[in-house]
Amino acid sequence: MNLQHAVILFIGFTIFFGVFYGLRVLFYQRLIIKERIMAIIENKQVTREDDPYALPFKERMIKPLLQKTETSIMKFAPSSLKRKEQELLVLAGHPHHLTLQEWMTWRVLIWLLMGSIFTMMGWSQELWIHKVLIALIGWGLGYIIPIFYLKNQKDK
Questions:
Q1: CA-based Rg of the chain, rounded to a whole angstrom?
Q2: Which of 29, 62, 85, 132 is the most buried (most CB within 10 A)?
């Protein structure tokens, strides 16, 4: 009986190791590829923090563009307008925690966006007077809406 058990154990181990090493030989290339992929992933994670292109689009492109726009707007804005806007901003309680620079930038962007949209809508009209009136309405609304927003926040 002992010899029989020993032979069965030997055959079992032989089959186990044969299957194990047989599968390893079959999938050896895949294992190497997996190790290379893991090395690349680990390497990218290390260099990702230093890579400026790894930052989100908002942080990499939008934020610097808005900062440059803010400084340009503040440079060319009259000081009397800055004072009035600062007073309104303080009275409104700094909605959305906006600074004067950020507020002025958003105000100009809203003005440009509304004016552009209404100008494009006006171009579809046939009469020149309609084209001009629609464009003027858009530019006027773009200028007035942010002021009304701040005054509404102040009243609240």
A1: 34
A2: 85
The b/e string for 110-137 (b: 16+ C-beta within 10 A; e otherwise) is bbeebbeebbeebeeeeeeeebeebbee
Residues with Cβ within 8 Å of 146's Cβ and at least 6 positions away in sequence, in order, are 106, 107, 110, 111
CA distance 4 to 129: 107
> In which residue are the tokens 């003027």 written?
136
Tokens for 82, please give them: 């800055």
Q: What's the pLDDT at 30?
A: 77
